[in-house]
Amino acid sequence: MRQCRFAAKPFYFLILSKYILKSFQHLSLFAGLALASCQNNTGKKGFTITPNMPGEKGEGISVIYTDSGNLRAKLFTPLIENYHDIDRNPYLEMKKGLTVFFYTANKYRPESMLKADHGIKYEKQKKVVLQRNVVVVNLDHDTLNTELLIWDELTRKIHSDKFVRIKKKDEILFGEGFESNEDFTDYKIFKIKGSLLRKNEESE
After folding, report:
1. Tens digits of per-residue pLDDT, 183-198?
2. In sequence order, which ranges of the chain are alpha helices (DSSP H)?
3. Rounded Cα gap, residues 29 and 34, in angstroms
4. How confident is the model at residue 32 (pLDDT cuts 50, 70, 90)?
5. Do the Cβ atoms of 69 and 48 come closer than 8 Å?
6. Secondary structure of residue 145 in the 3-state scheme
7. Which of 24, 46, 50, 103 has a Cα at 20 to 30 A from 171?
8. H or E segment at 32?
9. 6: phi then psi, degrees, rounded to nearest 5
10. Shortest CA distance to 143 belongs to which of 168, 116, 109, 178?
């Protein structure tokens, strides 16, 4: 059973109308990096949601993701907004960026780290779209750079159809299209455009 909980003390959402404060009880964003679903208690009458405006906002968010009691990921974001347009496509947006640490066997040491300047989690599709200055780093210090990355919570894979750059210990790979597991240990580039030896790069 996938769960998520706050790693720090409880915080409160400030509803945009500024008339109601309500506690944020369950949050889902990226996974489980797969992520769980969000639930909240309104408990207020006369509350309406304006289209294209977030129903809740939270600042300084720290979220822990678990799957069957095992730690899956820790997510940190300075701002999250919850858009409730259920008839269309409800989503959670992180406009000020996010950082995620992924875990497997060792719950005290992350296997990989992901950062992006912007993220959106689509509730129905169970996918997270990361944009702008996306960086993924694994334990071997292999580093992925791209401008668009999609995280599929159901398959527990990350992928992109855009230009990617992967810096390894001895070379740098360039290409289009990419797929990997969440730990960024088993990955492939679909269309390799070129490579560069690190020693050549350092000598230039």
Report:
1. 999 999 999 999 999 7
2. 198-203
3. 8
4. very low
5. no
6. strand
7. 103
8. none
9. -80, 140
10. 168
Q: How many CB atoms lie within 10 A of CB 178?
A: 24
Cβ pair 140, 166 in contact under 8 A: no
Torsions phi, psi of 160, nearest 5? -150, 150
User: From residue 129, how far is each of 7, 40, 123 by CA, in Å?
Assistant: 23, 23, 11
d(CA 80, CA 60): 9
Single-letter amino acid, residue 36: A
125 pLDDT higher than 50: yes
CB-based contacts of 153, cutoff 8 Å, min separation 6: 30, 31, 32, 33, 34, 35, 126, 127, 128
DSSP one-letter code for 185: S
- Please name each of the domains of the chain with its CATH number: 2-203 (2.60.450.10)
Task: Show the CA angle centred on residue 131, arms to residues 173 and 84, nearest 5°.
Answer: 150
Q: What is the pTM of this model?
A: 0.70
Q: What is the pLDDT of residues 137-157, one digit of tens each?
A: 999 999 999 999 998 988 889
> What are 116's two structure tokens?
């992006």
What is the pLDDT, as a whole number, of residue 52? 64
Q: Could you say which DSSP state residue 202 is in?
A: H
Task: Fill in the DSSP letter of residue 46.
Answer: T
CA distance 186 to 106: 18
